[in-house]
Design brief:
Largest sheet: 5 strands, antiparallel
Membrane topology: Multi-pass membrane protein
Order of helices and strands: HEEHHEHEEHEEHHHE
Protein name: Spore germination protein
Organism: Heyndrickxia oleronia
Strand order of the largest sheet: 1-2-4-5-3
Strand content: 15-25%
Family: Belongs to the GerABKA family.
Keywords: Membrane
């Protein structure tokens, strides 16, 4: 394995944000020191915050200025798994698997460190839907946990998780989930417009939201699929549908 990555494969935060379709889950912590600037980039729902804060950010901040270099960090950062030889696509894939991307702007070099926070099997078992085969976990009331489930099961740079707030007086956060190159843009635009036009404040669950979005309340045909199973949700997303969490 080479000790120095190809500098052409070291994009900055702005470029990564563009590749990931302006994902609101992608965060960057910038540290300026000794005339250089470090970008610490990660997906907030996929990393273990304690590990990033203690063993990446705090570790770097406490180093003498002379030691904040690519070669020193590569050998001494206290993380078990460190990648130093990679291409741009592997950077994106690693970020979507819970790695943290550390980019030194002046040296134009970077490394990836594993700070993943994997979903545990003990989340919850689906109660209203059942499967004979496959994972038994279900979505929870936590939007952050649900995004984590989606990201860990669908590693795709074109997966978009757009943020939106609905309600007039009581704002409720939603995520619109879709794959950019599979989803009809007109349908997506229409859905977003409908969501933005919702002014009622008592959206207590997905069934109430579905009623607000229905085109025909008396239709015999289902206009929405409601599920607590991530597998079923992901199957629909991979078939070009748009999901709402």
């Amino acid at each position: 394995m080479a000790n120095t990555p190809n500098i052409n494969n070291c994009p900055n935060y702005k470029k990564i944000k563009y590749i990931l379709n302006q994902s609101p889950d992608l965060l960057c912590r910038t540290i300026e020191v000794a005339g250089d600037c470090l970008e610490i980039v990660f997906m907030k729902n996929l990393i273990k915050a304690e590990t990033v804060n203690e063993y990446v950010i705090k570790f770097i901040q406490q180093l003498p200025k002379k030691d904040i270099t690519y070669s020193y960090l590569m050998k001494n950062i206290p993380i078990d798994e460190v990648k130093i030889d990679f291409k741009e696509q592997e950077i994106i894939s690693s970020l979507l698997n819970g790695f943290v991307y550390i980019y030194l702007l002046k040296e134009n070099k970077a490394l990836l460190v594993n700070c993943a926070n994997p979903i545990e099997r003990s989340i919850e078992k689906a109660e209203t839907e059942s499967l004979v085969y496959g994972p038994k976990i279900s979505f929870t009331e936590s939007l952050s946990s649900n995004i984590k489930i989606i990201r860990q099961n669908l590693n795709n740079s074109n997966l978009c998780t757009d943020e939106l707030e609905i309600g007039e007086h009581v704002k409720k956060k939603l995520r619109i989930i879709y794959i950019k190159d599979l989803t009809d843009e007109d349908i997506l635009k229409t859905l977003k417009q409908k969501l933005e036009n919702i002014t009622i404040d008592d959206i207590s669950d997905s069934s109430v939201l579905a009623q607000c979005l229905e085109d025909n309340h008396y239709s015999f045909f289902p206009q929405f699929i409601m599920t607590e199973l991530p597998d079923r949700f992901l199957y629909s997303i991979l078939n070009g549908r748009v999901g709402i969490l």
